[in-house]
Amino acid sequence: MATPPISTKRWTRLEYERLVDLGAFQPGERLELVGGDLLVREPQRGPHATGLGLVEDALRAALGAGWVVRLQMPIALDEESEPEPDVAVVPGTRRDYSVGHPSRPGLLVEVADCSLTLDRERKGSLYARAGVRDYWIVNLVDRVLEVYREPAPASETPFGWRYSAVQTLRPGQSVSSLAAPNARISVTDLLP
Which residues pair with 146 in a beta bridge? Predict the structure, then answer.
């Protein structure tokens, strides 16, 4: 007897926000909406938490006024996505987002160990589709920074987009965000 295909429901961002408002999820439950799917976020281990803090410190020091560094907060990317990247750099001030989540980040950063494949493939394709021009992965597995730029269509990817410019930077090298091209950040400062 053939097994019937599994049926799943794809969620919109508005449906997801309504579920949050109704209290459908437990307090502290770590979920994010990625391409219509509700994903359970991995628990944070020590290296991930340390990397997250190091990225925050480095970006706050480099960017200055006019940019907000947000940690693990929602980004309203499109109708079916409200991911919570580890770090998002958005224009303006914190109060600019008191009514709604930002939708046009200047930089998104994921700190990856267990989630490396997800961050490269699924989230990378999602962020490229949304037109995010600057996406970094602090790769804790290989102890490098992966810099993704130049979103381009790519039918073979999960969301039909990818980054055509990918650069791997090692400790001792430095990087600048497109949001602040004159500010150099040492890769060593981003790694635990």
Answer: 137, 168
